[in-house]
Each structure stands twice: as structure tokens, then as C-alpha cells.
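Predict the 3D structure for this chain.
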Amino acid sequence: MPRVNELGDLEITDPRAMRALAHPVRLTILERLQRHGPAPVAELAAEAGTNPSAAGRHLRQLAQHGLVVESDGNWKAVGTGIHFEPADDDESQAAYRALANQLFLRADELPRRWMTEDEPRLDGEWRRASGLSNARMTMTVEEAAELDEQMEKLLEPYVTRDPSDAPGGARRVRLLRYVMPEAS
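Done. Predicted structure below.
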């Protein structure tokens, strides 16, 4: 079963769990539970564009891998996010790629949707604080891992903060972070 780290992310290393989560309906259901909290099967089915029977099967598959739990007729995500890493074997590498591909496909549309739906409605201060960074650098794998660790530490107080403890004027912010080593 995956453990939940200090950021609230499920740490997934089992290739079977990665493959289970790589299914678009299961990923939609888990993301919905993580974002909005517990919900009954019928609500999750409608959100995922499927019927309650199929949604129930998908939820049981997620539960089998420790990603969701059921309580009093509602389903709940075990963590608030996911972090997944492959082992060196072929099965784990393939499962990692399947899940990473699904996540990249889902995230691909987010900047475009933000530009058309949210950005035009921002006031000047939020517009200046938002933006895009596209940096290219040369680093070792150890340096890339260290940078990722430092980013996690930098984000931790914001990711783990209860929304009720946020200062006035705070709003939800999505930060997309890609580390994409180029092939040699």
C-alpha cells in the first residue's frame, strides 16, 4: 500500500497501482476526490462520464491499491496528491510511462484553459504574480533531484496549509512543474 508523505501525496511505487491509476476514468475519479473531498458513487460517475456500476468497479480497483477508501456510502481519496517513481525493472518503467503519459495529457490543456478562462479576469497584481517560466539548464541527475527536493520544501507550507488558515485575499493557485531532461 502506498504511504502518504509529509505533503499529503500518496507515494506510489507499485507498478500495478500505477497501471490502475493510468486509466482515464480512475484518474478523473481520484482527482475529483482529492480536489473536492468525499462523494458517493453516483456523483463520481456523473463527474467521470460513466454509469454508477462502472464507477463502482473503478473505485474498487483504486481501493485495492490503497488509493481510496469507502466510509458510510462515500468514497474518499487517501492523499491530497500523488508522487510516483519507477523502479529499474521493465514492468515498473512501463507502468510509470503509462501514468506519466495520462498526467501529461491531462495537464496539456490547463495553460490554454487558464489563458482563456481565468487570466482575463485577474486584477493587475495577480496578473503580475502569475506567469510562465521556461528555463533550460545543464545539470547532473543528482542536481536535478536536489532541485526537485528544494522545490518540494519551498512549496510545503502552501501545499499543506488548510484553506481556512490562509490569509485574506488568498486564492487557489495551480503550479505546474515539469522537469524534462533532453535525450543525449
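The radius of gyration is 18 Å.
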